[in-house]
Amino acid sequence: MPEATRLRSLRATPAWRTGTRGAAVCALALAVFAAILLVAGKDPVRACADTFKATLASGYGLSELLVRMTPLLLTAVAVALPSRLGLINVGGEGQLYLGAWLASAGALAFPSWPAWALLPLVLVLGFLGGALWAAIPGLLRAARLVNETIATLLLNYVAPLIVSYYVFGPWRSTESSAYPQSAAFADAALLPPLFDTRVHAGLFIALAALGCYWLLMEKTRWGVDMRAIGGNPEAARRLGLPVRTWIVAALALGGGLAGLAGMGEAMGIHGRLREGLSPGYGFTGFLISWLAGGRPLGILFMAFLFAILTAAGDTLQITQGLPYSAINILLALILFIVLARRPARGGGR
Amino acid sequence: MTTPLALGVLAGAVLSGTSLLYATLGETLGERAGIVNLGLEGIMLLGASTGFALCAVSGSPWLGLGGAALAGGLANLGFGWLVVARRANQLASGLAMLFFSLGASALVGAPHMGAVIRGLPKWRPAFLAALPWVRGTTLFNYDLLIWIAVPVAVLVWWALFRTRWGLGIRAVGESPAAAYASGRNPAALQYQALAAGGVLGGLAGAHLSLSLTLTWAEYMTSGRGFIAIALVIFSKWRPLRAVAGALLFGGAEALQLQLQARGAEVSPFLLEMCPYLLTILVLLAWGGSRRFFAPAALGRTFYGPD
Questions:
Q1: How confident is the model at residue B1, as a pLDDT?
Q2: Mean predicted lDDT score pLDDT of chain A
Q3: Across chain B, what does the average pLDDT equal?
């Protein structure tokens, strides 16, 4: 087997320059967002201060950032991996919900199992759920029937309905509660928390996933194969690479990671299955991956940044009555500026 | 209510399908010029929230309608600037527009959530109201947007296929280089198509908030924008076929609403999945072969004479 060749990144820009460019983009986006806040009658300076207080100024704030980062890292890699083949996976939301659903099925079916058996089962099921949900668009794309962007987008709407059906129906908890949810999972199924915070072991899974992604892309032959397919699918096909298998595999792998994110939210944060597990983690993951160019270190940094921004959204909602969704404007501005700045590379698709 | 199910579904199909039709027509214009706008969902949300907000503030649904159309057109022009002037990736730009619109529509609509508005007035011609099977249903009791929906589809068809402007639009979508060589300005044509498409998308959203539900809720379009994008493919990029597609999908939505209202044993969640699953099935069955009918340069960036 030939040694894995090492492909150096084609962009020779030094890290500091990318960093300052990124900072400039963020600064511009923040400026425009501040203007919009002013027009909406809110106080941007106070928003900044409140966000800082809620995120970086305390140990608890930092731990909450890690809580947010955990699913974001996973959903970002869920997008980045297929993007190496040129595939666009916008189905992170749906894959997340399906992973949570399947993992919950396992936890509810075997509550008496010991942790060393139940936890791995739940992990595998979470991965499988997301993987299967992404494999459907993968198969459709491999058979050249449906574009995976549209398929993953549409399935995003179906997955939460599946969860809702089960939460309102067969799995509905008999405990009285303000909203419908499943029965609490056995302790054996829950991801252990770190210290006294809400950060759970899922963070290590997320970091491990990021590491594996880096390993896969940089150090293995599969990574080279994937980039070959992404660069020129027709040439790759003629070289004998199994492009169609790769399409399904890449989407399934990515979906599996998003499924793990869902499993993490259900088993690590909530301890049950309920509606509204994800405030758009799937979509935010897409943004993160896109802005980071699919690169692992960039994903880590952007996930941290977006954790702060989404925390800002929550803070603004509490302190100034701004709808949480308004923070999407800031996220969109960042993407907008990046898209508007980039010089036209060969062949926009 | 003893209206037969079929009649109820038909009536509901027209109500639900109108918004889908406008959105599909708008997207058809843009795609015929070679531009895919994944942010169509966002354009509809902007139209819905702007229309609702203006109506709540001024009391006039007509002002709301106008504002929605304007908001949609301007937003699509912003998207157009990214894609045409900056030559950005169309899919990513569309999603950027989607995000922006999610937030902007929430911002615009939030102060007015729960407001009671006077929606678009409805008319029913007397001779139709007299028919016994019409009375008691919503059939033919429509607001302006529904009444002019099919004429608008015909107008879009006529503009695309019977005018020089439409020929230019379609030329840009097939081969911008050839259009440029023939003396046309591809960028200008694309902007025009997007502006018109944005207006239609804004109207599509406005119909939801100003007529169908008379409310504003975040994400209220629930993926109709993406269904419309699928409908464009399903209708082979032809405005007149879009009418049939919109009725079909409006019917699917109406069917699940009717079944829910009649107390069917099926869970409402499973019923709500139907439109999305139907869309995927339709794309599965016909999408692959349909792609040969797409404008040849759809999705590609034109780099100009250099």
A1: 45
A2: 88
A3: 91
Q: Is there a contact between B258 and B9 (Cβ–Cβ < 8 Å)?
A: yes
Average of per-residue pLDDT across A253-265: 96
Q: B67 lies in which domain range?
A: 14-293
A155 to B276: CB separation less than 8 angstroms, yes or no = yes
Mean pLDDT, residues B45-55: 96
* Radius of gyration from C-alpha coordinates of chain B: 19
Q: Helices A115-142 and A148-168 sit at what angle, rounded to 10 degrees? A: 140
Q: Is residue B105 part of a domain?
A: yes
**For residue B81, which of B195, B232, B225, B229 has the smallest C-alpha distance?**
B195
Using CB atoms, which residue from A290, A333, A348 is nearest to B87? A348
Entry pTM: 0.90
- At B259, is the pLDDT very low, low, confident or very high (cuts 50, 70, 90)? confident
What CATH number did the domain enclosing B176 receive? 1.10.3470
Which positions in chain B touch A156 (Cβ < 8 Å)? 223
Q: How far is A117 from chain B (nearest CA, A)?
A: 33
Task: Please tell me the total count of domains within chain B.
Answer: 1
Instruction: Give the integer Cα–Cα distance in Å for A192 and A231.
Output: 42
Q: Which range, of B51-60, B120-129, B273-282, averages the lowest pLDDT?
A: B120-129
> What are the residue boundaries of the structural domains of chain A, listed by start?
70-280
- Identify from B107, B112, B286, B300 which residue to disrupt to test chain A contact, counting A C-beta atoms within 10 A and taking the largest count: B107
Residue of chain A whose alpha carbon sits nearest to that of B84: A340
Identify the closest residue of chain A to B266 by CA–CA distance. A165
Cβ-based neighbours of B217, under 8 Å, separated by 6 or more: B113
pLDDT, tens digit (0-9, with 9 covering 90-100), for A177-226: 777 888 888 888 888 888 878 888 899 999 999 999 999 999 999 999 99
**pLDDT number for residue A68:** 93
Residue B174: which residues within 8 A CB-CB, separation 6 or more?
A: B34, B295, B296, B297
- d(Cα B263, Cα A138) in Å, to the nearest integer? 37
Q: Is A170 on the interface with B (CB under 8 A)?
A: no
Q: Summarize pLDDT for B52-104 with one digit per residue, the tens.
A: 999 999 999 999 999 999 999 999 999 999 999 999 989 989 999 999 999 99
**What's residue B172's pLDDT?**
94
Q: Which residue of A has its CA nearest to B87?
A: A344
